[in-house]
Design goal:
Blueprint: H1 10-50, H2 53-112, E1 115-116, E2 122-123, H3 141-146
Antiparallel strand pairs: 1-2
Helix pairs in contact: 1-2
Length: about 150
């Protein structure tokens, strides 16, 4: 099967897509760390402002960690959905290839004028299993001469 011609700039677009995916991973990491850091700093401010020394930092860190876990769960779901879609596409492609191979095999078998039945025996084109010029058992002389 021939490949479509490569369009100008297609390599650049592929590189950009790869970089965009990598950038998304870094973005998620920075968001997660940032959530913990910002929530902890807000807790520290709360402690300094209201005099509740360890409580604000601990609550802020817990809230930031919760946001971090929530971000990871959402990211995991998105990655899993993308992986499932890719697996389904590959399975559909494999099924289509298998179907084309079966059709080619059927066409090739039909081209010989004989098809195998369920037992693997050759049946004649008439479909009754009888030999065109023989006794109806196995290969007759006419089948041997025809091939």
């Amino acid at each position: 099967m021939s490949q479509p011609p490569e369009l100008p700039g297609s390599r650049r677009l592929k590189r950009m897509a790869t970089r965009s995916q990598a950038g998304g991973a870094y973005e998620g990491a920075f968001e997660a760390v940032g959530a913990i850091l910002i929530a902890t700093l807000l807790g520290y401010w709360f402690d300094e402002h209201y005099g509740t020394t360890p409580t604000g930092v601990l609550v802020g860190a817990a809230i930031g960690f919760g946001a971090f876990v929530l971000r990871l769960v959402r990211l995991g779901r998105r990655v899993q959905a993308a992986a499932d879609a890719e697996a389904a596409a590959k399975a559909a492609e494999a099924e289509a290839r298998r179907g084309r191979a079966v059709e080619r095999a059927r066409a090739k078998t039909a081209g010989t004028g004989r098809e195998k039945d369920d037992r693997g025996d050759h049946a004649s084109d008439s479909g009754d299993g009888a030999d065109d010029g023989g006794a109806g058992v196995g290969l007759g002389l006419s089948d041997v001469l025809r091939d």
